[in-house]
Amino acid sequence: MKKLIYLFAALTLAGACSKQSGNGAKLKNDLDSVAYVIGLNVGLNLQRMDSTINVGAVCEGIRDIFRGQPRMSLEQAETYYLSYMNYALPEKARAYEEQFLADIAKSNRSYARTSSGVTYTVDDVGDQNLVPMSDRDSVMLRWVIRTADGNEIVSSYERGDTVRSLLRDLRKGVQESVRLIGRGGRIKAWVPSKAAYGPEGDPALKIAPNTTLYYEIELVDVDKYSSRRR
């Protein structure tokens, strides 16, 4: 299904370029076919990068290069692109994420928010005598992690394992979440990207940069550092 979507996007790109030039692209020989294949690959890559991209503007840039009349120098183009990718685009993502999390808290009064933007609801407070607070407290967790569109990244339940970690070694959003419950507690939390995997993401987990994540966390056990010192 995804291949069909990508192919449609590529065909849309080819069609838009053809419309701008006033006639349909005709594959008269092998070189034309090779050019079409290149167009397909360009369309696929652009669709993966940003499905909302202005296809007509892409085609105009290609035509300007072949006309020998680009509107920007390569140096100007590189500077503009890097500025957009490193500053404008992340800022747009943060603004969208903030509104998304604010809407969750507004539409469901069972959700609250921390100062970092973690938006959570506690299903079970657990044992309030065993709440992890020190960075050196050790915790045992089971969790399910999903993206905002519901795609499951990892599930301790499916894998049949338990996450064991010092509190300080967990992502900031997870640290904040487990501090709100005690042993045996359960919490659901939307974690903003800055408190999760940030602009780097995690290629191994297939987490894209600046991704909002949804956690369902069960705090299985807590080993207090203060108890170990005695």
Q: Could you give a short description of this structure?
A:
With 230 residues, this protein is an alpha+beta fold.
What's the overall geometry? elongated
What is the quaternary state of this protein? single chain
Distance between the termini: 60 Å
Overall mean pLDDT stands at: 87
Helix content: 40-55%
Structural class: alpha+beta
Q: How many beta-strand runs? A: 7
Low-confidence stretches: 1-11
The main β sheet shows up as: 7 strands, antiparallel
Structural Rg: 24 Å
List the total number of helices. Answer: 7
Strand content: 15-25%
Q: Which H/E pattern describes the elements? A: HHHHEEEEHEHEEH
Can you offer a commentary on this structure?
With 230 residues, this protein is an alpha+beta fold. It has 7 helices and 7 strands, in the order ααααββββαβαββα. The chain has helices spanning 2-21, 30-49, 55-67, 74-107, 156-159, 172-178, 225-229, and strands at residues 112-113, 119-124, 138-147, 152-155, 163-166, 186-191, 213-223. Strands 1, 2, 3, 4, 5, 6 and 7 form a 7-stranded antiparallel beta sheet that branches. Mean pLDDT is 87; it is low at 1-11.
